[in-house]
Fold these 3 entries.
Entry 1:
Amino acid sequence: MDPVARLRELALALSDRHGNFGADEVLPYAAEAIALVRQHPERLADFEEEFVYLPPHAPPEFIEVCMHALRLPGVRAAFEAEQSAAIAANDWRREPVFRHYLEAFEDDWGDAADFYSEYFGKPNIR
């Protein structure tokens, strides 16, 4: 299967589970997605495009975990633009979504230690 299509499949499969997601539900999907991106660096632009497409379709937790691990610059730039557009439009429902995505890019993202330490606490993971 095409790795970008597999990334979308993982995100949508988790989304199909509905509800609030705990780390134990998110991590298997996110870990496989992260591994896919790392195994196919030649497809980086395609992966970035896919992650930019995913926000209305994938659980935020999935995107946040992936972005904390991968720190894809094209995705960060797109999320910054979305957040700025939301602020300019006074869209206070959309702004926090992108703010949380952007927080996941930071080294000190609290969720990495609080909820996803099983994954991010392992050596050489980033």
Note: The chain has one domain: 3-120.
Entry 2:
Amino acid sequence: MDRVIMESQSNDESWVTENSENTCTHTTSTPYFIVPEERLRRKLQFHFMNPIEKWKAKRRFPYKFMVQLVKIFLVTLQLSLYSYSRYHYVNYTFDNRVTFSHLFLKGWDATREINTYPPTAGPLAIYVKDDFYSTIEFAVEGYANLSEAIGSYSYTNEDNSRPDMVFCLYSYKEGDIFGFNESYVFNSEIVETCKNLSQSGYSNFKANKFFEKNEINFSALVRAELKFSLKTVNFKSAGRISPPNCYQFDIVILFDNEDHDGQLVVTLDAEPTRLKCKGDVEYVIGNEISSILRSLLNYFVIFICFASLLLCARALWRAIQLRQITENFFISTFNKPLSSNDRGKFVNWWYLMIIVNDVLIIVGSSIQQQIESDEFSSDQWNVCSVFLGSGNLLVWFGVLRYLGFFKTYNVVILTLQKAAPQVARFLICAILIYAGFLFCGWLVLGPYHLKFKSLSTTSECLFALINGDDMFATFSVLSTKSSLLWWFSRIYLYTFISLYIYIILSLFISVIMDAYETIKQYYEEGFPKSDLQIFIGETNLDDLSSGLYRTGSTESLGGLVKDFFCCFKSTKNYTSIPSPENS
């Protein structure tokens, strides 16, 4: 770095005068390949300033900073309103599914509506043929007597007449079992057969007589489905926030016999589809204001996120150009390129995260607007919530960037940044050990333990054990039919818990604490400086308000417009910078 040559003050003053007019002509006529060394240093100093220092240096309105503040407020407001609507939607559809289970499933009781661990009841299943026929008859009778239900349900036909109930059988083409002599006839091709139950009428419907001509072969039966639809209107969400919603529920009662274990599991699913209401016209007019305001909020969020995306993308592009200039300067002046660490300093990962959350929020807001305007034939609540929720998560993560400008809060960010490589290497080793326990537990304990019945539940169980959750239940739920497996499970669980809680977690914490102590030492003794930081030097706080940095740069919003519309030729000014000897 001994070759660094400081330019005279007269050259700096001439450069400031030369660039005082912020026009496209001047930007093009003052190429950056004649920029002296001090000018590059000053540009790098300004690039690595925080928004407050940049405002003091150039006295220009911090557009990106204010856009992020406005975006946080608007996105959070949008998410709150959307969460309110989605909460009522999810609860409404779930409660209707429970109602349909009581109306159309024989043997359904309230204990099956609550998820408990361990489960208080087994699956709703059929074991004899008469129960199969009686379950169909119960559903048909409930459908025929829909007016007796407390809920305001209607048939899907416009005149409220009963549409057809369709019963579909999915069976193997051939599937006969002769257990007495251990033989069978089997063809794995699945054949679908659908019947209209309305052919015999809904009054006094007898399923065994209906299937008398075409008797069901339960040995070949894979599954059976009873399908029908209902309409209703939801008044609960009506109010100043939103008008009543109209829904059609496509109900499917599934008889699952894929395992062929003598147990025909019965489940009910109701898929909701929101319809356009044709209700009280005066009431809808009274809610047009709130609907318009919500639409304006969605459009404004899309606009502000799009502006944020453009500003951050432009900042990243200018940083890449500045990195190329600096790289060429270091090669021509100091005969060595920038280190990988110095090159990485030009990539602002916060801007990348902001661009990602902008894209997520723009997509989520577009879907939300279409949902609220009833442009979707089917509901996309879950898809929209994933986009909006993930975008909002990253928006609030972005607040850490501004807290990082303060020394007290920046310790956390620097500690995570310092520990990231060591943590990544540590996690690779820990995950390999975890994978071994995962597959072993699933294979050995899966058939005998509720928590190990699948790979996902096994992983969830092991992760919960690492955090000390539900340990006794995990030990006690295991079946004691096999003494070998009982002893194996004890050795397996004790080894895993001891290894991860007492050794691996302790090592993980020590890695973080070591990085934290290193950062504390840096704050006391000074951070190590790279070649780039040595070249940039320290920023004099007195220079920030002296006007030294107030040049004809295009960092303002006007500069952004010029970049897009009239100054494309100026991009060549950011491609290279020869040494001062050649300027």
Note: The first strand starts at residue 125 and ends at 126.
Entry 3:
Amino acid sequence: MALNKSMHPRNRYKDKPPDFSYLASKYKEFQQHVHTNLTGKVSLNFKEPEAVRALTCTLLKEDFGLTIDIPLERLIPTVPLRLNYIHWVEDLIGCGTNKNKLIRGIDIGTGASCIYPLLGATMNGWFFLATEVDDMCFSYATKNVEQNNLSDLIKVVKVPQKTLLMDALKEESEIVYDFCMCNPPFFANQMEAQGVNSRNPSRPPPSSINTGGITEIMAEGGELEFVKRIIHDSLQLKKRLRWYSCMLGKKCSLVPLKEELQQQGVPKVTHTEFCQGRTMRWALAWSFYEDVIMPSPPSKKRKLEKPRKPITFTLLEYTVKELRNKVASSEPVPSDAIEVVTAVVEKILTDLKVLFKRVPCGKDEVSLFLTAIQNSWVHVRRRKRDGARQLRELPRATSDPFQSTEADSTSQSHSSPNTGPDGAERSNVGAGEMAGENEEELPANGGNSLLSVMPLDQESNMETEERFSSSDSSSTVLGTDSAVEKEKASSARANPEAEDTPKGSGSCFLFKCLVNVKKDGRNAQVEMHWVEGQNRDLMNQLSTFLRNQIFKLVVS
């Protein structure tokens, strides 16, 4: 049962699902529906109505001492799911705060099993008014109450069709009930009941059969209109009940019903989820009493997310030795393999302008906390090629064809060459004093100055940023020529530095991660653990870049 851990904390089946083997050995009626495969695993076919009924009756007998009869033509309830609802009602009314008070409840449409009143009366001693419109269900419900000797706590009432609360309470004008509960008909028509146009095609088919009579599974307008009728009744009854509640089969019904209650000015509204196996249900409750204490709705994150595995790559012992030999000539390198790899990683991060600092960690490992401010590792090869191309094209880019003839410029350049502060030869644009007035000045700040004289097309720059922040950028991070050339051709006019910050980024960093360098036998392993940021793919890209740079250093 995949969702059993999300059952109500007090549900007896939460951590101890039914033992089919034990139940089969004790109850012959149940044994005939149990199947054992070659491995000895015991299972039940939930597509068979007889098997589902046998399980429900067996669980009620074994765990609650209740003996019931249910016709196959009517709804067969599942015990764990109904038990969730009972426990939630306990939370609503504060069960246990006043044990001497008789708790009164109403079950709208109790069904043939009369399961809610039977469970509530047996477990908590609650008094129930159980209403029913179907003749067969009324007959079986009455029989089930009588054979369990609970007639003093459960009153089964036959009511007219489409009757909910108003008619049922006509004769009891002085009594204030603590709650009402209802499992309304889910479907509006036969097609919905069969899953046509109402079930997501991607969802697997139901694992159990859908039993129930027409009045139990279908109603005009489905569960949405049915519950709205209960809301309408509650607006007239108001404080005749402390809590109104109902169970929903569709999550999409929850929001419009809460909006309806809000529009009607109902002061107290809450909801919850019911889980059993692969079945999910939702419940809604509201009250006109200001002093009631509402149980908190379920957290949006039902369970903690599983920690993601780190991105790792391994450096073999031979690779670590080669790294030590490559960098030993330039600066002192520690003999420890972990420190060697860490030193190389730190050097690459420094060149990339990625912020990092060492943090305490375990023995035989080094940890670095990284903060990436800009994307300085993607398309490095393309940037170098663009810089070289711009350097080659610089003389043509800085010449002014409107100043003089090409012959005059050439003669002047032969007589008095003019070399800029970046070392590139530039042609004069005119003779005498005109040359000094029209020559374009270049900032003397190294290679980066070459980028500043290139035209910046803002629209092209925005398109480039979008490509860099998309998932397609991960395919170019490996440095394949075809991918780089394709990116280069599509954004030749863009400012290369503009890609450092993704478009629309509102934070001051791209991501943060923890890098652990530790021993893996005789090898070294680098792990990158995600902490937070805009896109986890950026950490993937940086990991690939680090690995490629290390291997390139070894083979160079």
Note: The first strand starts at residue 34 and ends at 36.
